[in-house]
Fold each of these.
Amino acid sequence: MKNNPNKLWIIVFALGWLFDFLFWKKAPGVNFALFAMACLVAAFYLLLSDELRPNRASLSLLPLFGFFAAVTFIRAEPMTTFLAYTFTLLTMSVFALTYLGGRWYLYTIADYAGKYFNLLGSMIMRPLIFMTNIRKEQKDAGVQPSKRNIWPIVRGIVIALPIIAIFASLLASADVIFGQRLDDFVKLFNLENLPEFIFRMIYIIVIGYALAGVVLHAATESKDEKVGNEDKPVIPQFLGFVESAIVLGSVVALFAMFVAIQFQYFFGGTSNIHIDGYTYAEYARKGFGELVAVAFFALVMLLTLSAITKRETETQRKIYSGLGVALVALLLVMLVSAYQRLGLYEAAYGFSRLRTYTHVFLIWIGLLLIATIVLEILRKERMFAFAMLIASFGFAISLPILNVDVFIVSQNIQRELNSAKKDVVDLDAQYFIDLSDDAVPTLAQTFQTPSMPASVREKVGAALACIRYERNLSERDASWQSFHFSRFNAERAFDSIRTELARYAVDSTSYPATVVTPSGEKFPCSEYYYD
């Protein structure tokens, strides 16, 4: 890049223009994945052209990048897509941070914080430093600037345009005749959207400049020299073993007493529903949040004590590790109890997005607890950030694989089919209305299943009629940049049931809109109507 700095600027500003082309007035779809892939390919080209090859450990991030980038235009469920966008950017940024060094798996939380702070600084200052160094090297070598250099002209035009626009608007306000002539001039060049063009040009330059900073950071600041002594504690150990053992032992004793007293209550299942008059909801909700909070804060306490406690002899290390194992074992018992409570709640009231997220989250936080104590026993406490990163990746990967909205539809319908009260339909079909396009093919398949009970089929059909009605009210971006597989599959599903769905009339005169089913039942198109 030093030999041909113009190549860097041409590519990054082309990426800025590509961002504008893909995203300006376009709905999210395949555009994000295309832009992310273009940035990665461009960065590889620039770095490899300077013979800067990536570390193999950094290349291991690329499959994760590809997975999350693909999820952004395959799944439409909000949490899944949010995590997909987040982890796509995360893998790209970690790749930039460790392009040459590749030791991202050895970073502590403090290392990550410092590295990201440095990356932000590089996005702001690195391009300026790069150009300053280029000019200095050319001056020291006696190289005269090329007379054909167009960058001064480009910079002059970019600076002049907003200034001219401001003065022209003021002069147009001061004189009517000048204002009319200015309008004629603008119309002559079809520049009625000049403010919009200026705004777009500015953010194209800003994006290109920031991308240049990221590439230059990867080329110069990603060698990981400062992650040197992995055995050195991140925080000086200042707390005595006796003090930590008392704290940890006291908490272990408290948790053991709690588990012993509440053991029947933990795992009694439905037999506990009538203890003290508990209902399903009260049993499932009471203490669930507190148990998860206890697990979280106990994990923080264990990590803090592990970082600051002096363990000078092998006996002290074994005692501390034993207390840590006991603490994690008791926490896992509490998490199993919380998991069971959630399962009972879902059995009684069905699945929702929040309950599904929590189910998956409990599994991964349990695995993180186990990893934490294993690292403590192996004396690899520095690897906790890596374990936490893996757990985060695992949670984010689990949701698109599970396909949250499809899982909710399948589980709630199966729950209804397995219900002992076959004559009563308590299927919350209103909840289906607020699910994403991911759920539509599964709902359509259920609607077309001949063996499905008529009562369930009718409610599913009413939910589909409401979804189709609301989709028709909203304007959908048909551009190829906004293509989304979930939206495409939903449209195909609606086409397959067009004839059957025509029997469900939508009354749009009421609020909310109401679907009249073939049997004459009215189905409000709102989850909160009955509330």
Amino acid sequence: MHEYGMVRVACAVPRLQLAACQKNSQGIIDLSKTAYENGVEVLLFPELAITGYTCGDLFFQRSLQQNAVDALGQICDWSRGKKMLLVIGMPLAVDGCLYNVAAVINDGKILGLVPKTYIPNQQEFYEKRWFQPATSLRRTTIELLNQQVPIGTELLFEHQSVKDCVLAIEICEDLWVPVPPGSFHALAGATLILNPSASNEIVGKSDYRRELIRSQSGRLNCGYLYASSGFGESTSDLVFGGHALIAEKGILLEELPKFNEGDKLLITDIDTESLIHDRQMLQGYGDCKELLKEKCYRRIAFDTRPAETLSRKVNPFPFVPGNEARRSERCEEIFNIQTMGLGSRIKHIGNPKMVVGISGGLDSTMALLVCASVCDRFDIPRDSIHAVTMPGFGTTDRTYDNAVALIKGIGATFHEISIVEACQKHFADIGHSMSVHDVTYENVQARERTQILMDLANKLNGLVIGTGDLSELALGWATYNGDHMSMYGVNGSIPKTLIRYLVKWVADHEKDETIRDILYDVLDTPVSPELLPPDQNGQIQQKTEETVGPYELHDFFIYHMVRQGASPKKIYLLALNAFAGIYEKPVILKWLKSYYRRFFTQQFKRNCLPDGPKVGSVSFSPRGDWRMPSDAQFKMWLEELETIQ
């Protein structure tokens, strides 16, 4: 997994006994064994895990301090010969002061000791009674267990095999202050921030903690591991729930529920390549580097054994939230963005008529629904929408009937203009046989429809509303200067997999039962441009996904190539995980190769897209997110896929 920038990480919540260092070290070793067997490379334990966090004045006992060091030695001995990095909290006496530190261990060696920077001393916390802040430390190395060990807050731990995997540590309260040390660590190059913590549970605190970790990982574009102490801590006045979380780029990947009974592991994979990709895109990272001018980081190398498989859960529908409530919220937000975008444009140019072609398919249905929403939001009569159905050689009764019923049900002005005679005349003019159903046969129809819409808009002093979506633009599945063109494209940054849920969301909230039934039937209709004649039963013969491939695969490819900057081989690996049991390996590989060919060769269409609102993290507007030459070569990308066995 290292070649893809994947590193397997875990948070461990042991079941401890207060001040029982040897017992706790054995528990740490036992959990470490399990983690190692599961391919974990980086393992985080809670704050003061060797002694327990709630030892109070016992921290001053020389016996406890020495036993903690001895326990650390036992853990080091166990780790010898094992390529796994452990981060474990313990108290440590240095030059007459006591510090709350995280010990970093790899293959029997203590790589570094990171002391806590901010010591809480308010409400239920009294840490300053026992511990000194890191700022009081005057050493850069100490001797511990017959090793010369770097000590300090400005330590970075660099993976020898994964160049983008750089670890840094902040401890508990460090995260809760206005400017956490992790912010500087990230600017210095850390892609993973580890936080050994002891955070007690009170009503509502876990929600805030979760949001804090999630937002910090997003702000820093990092992976963030948080492991808090739990079962076994004193309950005299507080309860510690053993809450553990792993976040990446603002997304909570995994969470160990609080109030567990301990001896638990939370395991996932962190994608360090995607972290670096986003940092390269954000100019703010470079702009903030000057904040490090007074800091001097030391870099310490470590190595781990790579996991053989991918443990991380890969979402097959990255554009579509899996949670139903979150998905509904997302759809409502997108629909409002579309409505406000088109509504603002309509108002800006003096309330022109809206002209939109309706085929009875998903995309044109979505565009019509947005037009109707604009009318309702801005007090415009719905008959200002001029909806046009343009039957051709491939139009079926099902799509035609749905288009007509929807236009009339919405209350738009209805137009029916057949393209058959015009296309037949054009075929005759250019000498193309009607029996040859090639790209010319198809594109003549698409361009005739666009010409009708444009000319009708001129006649009505109107605006042609585009219907094409992001997935079609990625694949070039649009006729150049045909359906590829409009005066304002409301669907241009919405992937096909999400369009379906948008239409369903509108249908679910539609009060008119007739319109609701039409929308549900549109959702059940196969995706098709209907440019080839129907089959002998009058059913749709030309099904888009049989030609270009499944849109759910292509949307997956789009997201990981454009949004994450992933390589072809990595996308293939992720797709195998996401679509296991749905698509066989040869099928995924076939459509991934097809995707790259189409994406590169069809850029010229994306370079001249009409205006339209950006709604998500991926957009192909040449004025916004995506700038790419039309003559870029794709050979390198396909050659990488040819190496797959």
